[in-house]
Amino acid sequence: MKFEERHLAQLAAVVETGSVSDGAALIGLSQPAVSRTLSQMEKRLGQPLFEAGRRPLVPTLIGQQLAAHGKVIWQASRKASETVRGFQRGSVGTVRVAGVPFFMDAFISQMIGEFQRLEPDIRVDQSYGNLPELQAGIKSNQLDLAICPMGIVEAGSGFEFTPILPGRNIVACRTAHPLLKKRGLSSTDLLDHPWIAPLPGSPLLADLHAILLSIGMSEINIRYSGGSLLSVLNYLEETDALTVMPHSVVFALRRDRQVTVLPVTIPQPERTLGLLRMAGAARLPASEKLLRHIVTRFGDLRQMIQRHENAVVWGM
């Protein structure tokens, strides 16, 4: 004998509340509709679902057993409804986000942690990539959101770019670097020390070549290359090497690491850090929430970073 799942769920609601009217209200149905369902079930069974004359209602043995199955159905349906409502509010779901390594490690991973304190039921899958990989990931629906530095015309058709921080690069060094004590820094001073090369494919690598052109040199002494942000910082703190790095990254690490800005003026890229996504695509509510959180946090940081930049006495 087969019973409809919705009928079992109605029986479970009545057993749960001990009343037909209260059970009906619990699952959003009318009392007459639930009464008809129980009557039909009893006719099919050929025996009562509830003991006669008992208030609140007390299920018979068969009624109790069928209600147990119905409760599983009812609770699953309720959880499904809660999931849908949470998804629509942006309180549940998975956001797939990727970005250039230095910014993801210096800023975004911490912001994701802050975000998940507020939205603990949203999962964030983070990965790394430079602009070509990020654009491909968004186009193929493997990513919901990307964080990367981009020039004015780089986004391309089909993409939407939301700027969050103006780009500025600096030469970074350890806080005890001998050049920090030198007055009147010159371009030749930069060539007297080894360098760390940015990751292959990174915009910073192109920026390093621009620095070389500006000081009239074709190459420098590369001692270390291809490292993550953590490995670059570890190497930088133990040597007199120099590297090109976004100023905002050094700002983010200013209290935790022995790395600082070498106050020399270098060519600046026409590039802005921002959020990249598909233009005109349907927006996942959870993804929109994370995007708004990142935009807000960078809005808070922008003036602090600017004040830090203005405090540096730039030379050369």
UniProtKB/TrEMBL annotation:
Listed GO cellular component terms? cytosol
Gene Ontology molecular-function annotations: DNA binding; DNA-binding transcription factor activity
- Say which domain of life the source belongs to: Bacteria
Q: HTH lysR-type domain spans which residues?
A: 1-60
Pfam family of the protein (one): LysR_substrate
Swiss-Prot/TrEMBL keywords: DNA-binding, Transcription, Transcription regulation
Give the family per the record: Belongs to the LysR transcriptional regulatory family.
The molecule here is called DNA-binding transcriptional regulator, LysR family
Source organism (scientific name) = Roseicitreum antarcticum
